[in-house]
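Ticket reopened. Same input as before:
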Amino acid sequence: MEEFAALLPPLLDGLWMTLRITAGAAVLAIPLALAAGLARLSTCRAISVVALVYIETFRGTSALVQLFWFYYVLPLFGLKLPAVTVGIVVLAANAGAYGAEVVRGAILAVAPGQREAAVALNMSSAKILRRIVLPQAFPAMLPPAGNLLIELLKNTALVSLITITDLTFRGQMLRAETLRTTEIFLMLLLLYFAVALVITAGIRLLERRFRVR
Amino acid sequence: MTPIFDWAFAWEILPALGSALIITIQATLLGMALAVVLGLVLAMLRRVRSRWISTPVAVLIEFVRSTPLLVQMYFLFYVLPQSGVQLSPLVTGILALGVHYAAYCAEVYRAGIESVPRGQFEAATALNLSPWRTAVGVVLPQAIPPVVPALGNYLVAMFKDTPLLSAITVVELLQQSKIIGSATFRYTEPLTLVGLLFLLLSLIAAWGVRRLEAWLKKFGGSR
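Engineering reply: fixed in the latest deploy. New output:
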């Protein structure tokens, strides 16, 4: 048991990094998903196509390939970013692309009569979006958004491969030092599972809060 | 000065990437074969009446679904040899992909099984069919076809997760491109080509899944 306790502090250091990357990418992904989801529904052809290209590029390629591409190729164009920034931006862009589809689906699911009534009341399109469409679409976005958040948490393990000292990277380092492979990887899995449970519980709370009305 | 994207070099490395692509596709297909079968077993075990079986299976599915595939791969890669199971990295990777996606497939099957009308179960009971014959002869033939597109989406998702195999030393597409990169100091072409290959193949696969979905909608209901 004491040996377990000795393994914990470095892993918790790594967990902190994992949580920061998850939170940073999530905060960035939400506006990205909203913007891309709305752009996809735009009546302006050019905007919709740009959004489509973004969504399909990030959904159609592997997250790890995206990480490596931005990590290895961007510096060749003269853009040198710290690994953590690359990790957060790429994971956010990836999650944002999946999120855009969630946003689009939820907006399309709002009854068309709602929008028509708002048009009849002579509301501006920005106001229709803000006051009529988004508030009704929001509850439908919550459950898939929760799943995406857990996918994002799991994807943060990939940043260990671009030298970021997250939970997985710390686990690998500890394994090399102590060779206590089984314990370390079990603890890694349990820590990720614990965070995922917390996220699930948080989303459940939000769902209950917004379903009441 | 060499151009930013050297087409001649890209053309030159294409065959090497092509042979690595075969490993990637092999891993995807074998991993999916495992996931589809194991997922069905998990879905059935989850429906077993005894709590002693269904609860641990439900927890296991949840656990596998909410922990990173990369860590699961490391776990199998480093821990299996310690317990005396010697597998090649590729086989270990396929096992990890299969188990991870089996948990997702189990949920897909569950949705399919739950959408079978209750009357079908009741009729099978009335006809005194054994649980096995109820499952195989009555429920599954109705539960599986509607969820085939969802399984197809997971096939595409698994394909996009195969680059993780590079972390456990399998020379698949991404690892091959990194080897080329470190040998020639040119990362732009190999990594961009890998990205484009993934994009191309997953767009084709997604199109195939959509066609399948449309086909099932058209002809699936006529049974």
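Residues 39 and 105 of chain B are 5 Å apart (CA to CA). Chain B touches chain A at residues 4, 63, 65-72, 74-75, 78-79, 82, 160-164, 166-167, 174, 178, 181, 187-188, 191-192, 194-195, 198-199, 202-203, 206 (CB under 8 Å). Please confirm and we'll close it.
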